[in-house]
Amino acid sequence: MSAPLEDVIVVVEDDPDDRHLLTRAFKKLGSSVPLRFACDGDEAVALLSEVASSADPSMRPVVILLDLKLPRRSGLEVLTWVKAQPALRRIPVVILTSSRDQTDLKQAYDLGANSFLVKPSQPHALHSLIEQVNAYWLGHNEVAPIAV
């Protein structure tokens, strides 16, 4: 059994370079919230299934950062699955993708995404974006209780 997901950010990202850059950006911010990674859509569903099946409401992530272009199960499929789970659907899902496709944007919001962010290509710009994500989703956003 893996460690509880209390006060974590779940990052669903298949690119190891992007995972490394995200880890560095959060560390530079001094964020105390640990990151848990899933490298593909199926791994994300398995990780989040722990949360959905747990009776402990403290085992939920504060936010899910979700890439769209994933192996096995796409980010949109993961988003659809998350929003269909009563224990997960109130967790904010932030799409963090390199896609600028308007179809992806519209579909993500139609499926319940809380935000759609395009990954910048420069590491310093990514750091700035993560600083804003951290401030808003972990600093200002009010977390809704889990539905049961």
Could you explain how this protein is built, in words?
With about 150 residues, the protein is α/β, with parallel strands linked by helices. The protein has a single domain, classed as Rossmann fold. About 45% of the residues lie in helices and about 15% in strands. It contains five helices and five strands. The two termini are about 25 Å apart. Mean pLDDT is about 90; it is low at about 1-5.
Highlighted features:
single chain, 148 residues, alpha/beta, Rossmann fold, 5-stranded parallel β-sheet, 5 helices, 43% helix, disordered N terminus
Shape: globular
Structural class label: alpha/beta
* Share in helix: 40-55%
Strand content: 5-15%
Poorly predicted parts: 1-5
Q: Short description, anyone?
A:
With 148 residues, the chain is of the alpha/beta class.
Task: Produce the secondary structure layout.
Blueprint: E1 9-12, H1 16-29, E2 35-38, H2 41-53, E3 63-66, H3 75-83, E4 93-97, H4 102-110, E5 115-118, H5 123-140
Parallel strand pairs: 1-2, 1-3, 3-4, 4-5
Helix pairs in contact: 1-5, 2-3
